[in-house]
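Quiz preparation item.
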């Protein structure tokens, strides 16, 4: 299967996907300045916003699963070039090449760097080997998807091992980089954390994922990512917390529904405590839930809007009501973009 993937087309599709993820954060080649890619646009808009509020209230956290790490590895240098510091970066089964990560991201990681904290959640080598890839309910490859990328889709594999080192592979952590050190050694030197799943010494460094596809919906992993953002080592009492001032204040949460739901909170301003009980917080008039996955009591994110005292406090992107069925398109239209409808 690895030979088929490498020689009969799928590798070309993988290369195109990688190119799309990476090129999203390029400046663009348009002479008129109109060729601005999505990642670059986000970086510029975020930098402008941070400048408008004085920078203090804003903390940027990035988390990516699998090929999402390729997108983020390209986005990070663009954010840094725009003057945006990153409070935390987390990869879950990262499919980005170790050499690319070492070149573009690793030098900026550390307490004194512009990326303050980095965590990689990787499956154990045994679990990578025991995982399967299936189509239509039939297994066609008896290792993880990440292994298929490393051994069948990435170009120029290692001659001896047949593997292209990826950040998310445990076996690649000890592969030597161009510096002569291994990725594990380099990460340890920056104070970064490596979590090998399933397992972990504490709630902020734990994953119960048993397959490559488990990371982005595994309760322990999602809790750990959120705890790393909050600089906490364990869940607040009661199982939920309200974010405020970079810390977490435990508040009682009421059970809602039969299943726990994990919600990530991305905020562009310092949250204010909601007067309503439970794991809710108000951000510029928009009430949002901040929830840890699993553990009693169970809470779900709240997506209802608060009626603002002054409409001018709400950013255009947050104040608009969905009209087109596409939140992204609604945001562009509300920001002054015009839709050209073609026959």
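Solution:
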């Amino acid at each position: 299967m690895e030979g088929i993937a490498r020689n009969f087309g799928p590798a070309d599709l993988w290369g195109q996907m990688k190119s799309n993820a990476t090129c999203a954060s390029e400046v663009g080649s348009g002479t008129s300045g109109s060729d601005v890619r999505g990642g670059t646009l986000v970086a510029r808009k975020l930098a402008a916003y941070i400048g408008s509020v004085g920078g203090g209230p804003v903390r940027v956290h990035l988390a990516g699963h699998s090929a999402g790490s390729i997108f983020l590895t390209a986005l990070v240098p663009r954010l840094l070039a725009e003057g945006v510091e990153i409070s935390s970066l987390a990869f879950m089964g990262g499919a980005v090449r170790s050499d690319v990560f070492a070149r573009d991201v690793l030098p900026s990681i550390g307490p004194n760097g512009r990326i303050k904290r980095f965590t990689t959640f990787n499956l154990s080598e045994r679990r990578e080997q025991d995982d399967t890839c299936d189509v239509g309910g039939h297994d066609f490859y008896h290792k993880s998807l990440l292994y298929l990328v490393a051994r069948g889709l990435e170009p120029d594999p290692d001659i001896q091992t047949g593997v292209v080192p990826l950040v998310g592979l445990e076996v690649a952590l000890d592969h030597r980089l161009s510096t002569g050190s291994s990725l594990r050694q380099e990460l340890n030197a920056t104070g970064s954390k490596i979590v090998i799943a399933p397992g972990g010494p504490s709630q902020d460094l734990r994953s119960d994922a048993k397959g490559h596809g488990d990371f982005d919906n595994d309760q322990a992993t999602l809790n750990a990512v959120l705890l790393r953002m909050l600089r906490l080592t364990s869940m607040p009492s009661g199982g939920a917390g309200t974010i405020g001032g970079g810390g977490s204040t435990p508040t009682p949460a009421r059970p809602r529904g039969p299943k726990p739901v994990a919600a990530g909170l991305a905020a562009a301003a310092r949250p204010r405590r909601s007067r309503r009980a439970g794991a809710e917080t108000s951000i510029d008039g928009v009430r949002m839930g901040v929830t840890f996955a699993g553990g009693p009591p169970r809470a779900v994110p709240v997506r209802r809007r608060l009626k603002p005292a002054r409409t001018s406090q709400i950013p255009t992107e947050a104040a608009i009501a969905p009209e087109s069925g596409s939140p992204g398109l609604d945001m562009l239209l509300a920001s002054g973009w015009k839709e050209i409808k073609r026959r």
